[in-house]
Amino acid sequence: MDSQLQVYNTLTRQKEVFKPINPPLVGMYVCGPTVYSDVHLGNCRTFVSFDLIYRYLQHLGYKVRYVRNITDAGHLEGDRDEGDDKFTKKAKLEQLEPMEIVQKYTLGFHEVMRLFNTLPPNIEPSATGHITEQIEMVKQIIDSGLAYEVNGTVYFDVEKYSKDQNYTILTNRELDDLLANTRELGGQDDKKGRLDFALWIKAKPEHLMRWPSPWGWGFPGWHIECSAMSKKYLGDTFDIHGGGLDLAATHHTNEIAQSQACNHAEPAKYWMHTNMLTVNGTRMSKSAGNGFLPFELFTGDHPLLSRAYSPMTVRFFMLQAHYRSTLDFSNEALEASDKGFKRLMSAVHLLDKLPVAGSSDYNVQDLSKRCYAAMNDDFNSPVLIAELFEAVRVINSVYDGKSKLNLESLDQLRQLMKAMVFDVLGLQSEEKSEGDLTAIMDLLIRLRNEAKAKQDYATSDQIRMSLQELGIQLKDSKSGTTWDKI
Ligand SMILES: [Zn+2]
Fold first, then answer.
1. From the CA of 223, how far away is ligand 1's center (Å)?
2. Are 392 and 347 in contact (CB under 8 A)?
């Protein structure tokens, strides 16, 4: 498959022509959520961005195997193996079993992903479901001489690895800088080197989530799950590995080291990272009090929000920024996206009502080329959306009789708009469907009948008159009440 697609690769710090290892197959692994609390908006942005990438690759004809994991074990509070286990801590706080915490927040995560209209991944493996694979990988790393066990915990030997390999290949940071920013080892520490990280962690007696291993009862370190699961489902080397930018320096750096040590091959050809969120110009974080959850956006229930914004407005808003740029939330920006989204969808609905002329005064093929050029330039959705607004102008102008399109151009425009708006950007119409209206009308007719039965004619008349004002006519007959749009 000849591709015009250019992808920015964090590993090489440049845009490269996308050449999958085994076209038309594409293997894509994205680090999923740690399901110990409600999914935060930064994560949602990452998953909406990779949904765009997944959709566009499929649109181009690639057969993508998209793997996105669920971290349900092994993630300690600090990224460098310190602090409590997040699940055990939350389980104590909510007085639930750790796996109840996992189930609760996995369901919540899936619901948010559904509202954002993201396509589910092909495989969604969990860390707890792949303990055997992780233990096997740790054994192989020990066998290769790059890991050691101390008192039931297994550490990756970063110093030894660095003799032959570039540990900081992904971020290009100096190893000395890294060392300078890492605390000195004390008498309590079992690990040999300051940068060494845990592959397997000995479980304390109070630890609820634990498994038997060659090194005693314990649980996997956070980084090993992604190396083990990506290897299992996508092979030693696959095409795209993605995640939030905050994962690059530690989690992904360690993943590369683990996979190299075990498989003697680079795990992924292209590393892709999404940038962070800001609110009114400052970094979004819970501690700063400016981090809102998806449902707070959907209900408007947050001090910083002036009203509610629908999931599609928020999705559209996210896609109006390039995935590698920071995305700044503000009421003004969300308000503008809401207007823009509605304007775009109204034009899409007008497409089937446009008059056909004998000739065209607009070149749809040029527009199509510009749309694909935008997406081929590292999935540049904001530029694509700007092109679609050019189409909105044309659609409105044709509808008003100020421009004209012949049948061929009109068909091309319909196909292009529907492909870009629905298939690639993954937007959905939020207008209530006829099915929803039927259910609402059944309810109103029942309430009106109940009012009449109680001889509350003021209420029953009120319902009939109000519906009439909305363009709906009720008709009473012996067999019951029916309705019609006027
Ligand atoms: Zn990961």
1. 6
2. yes
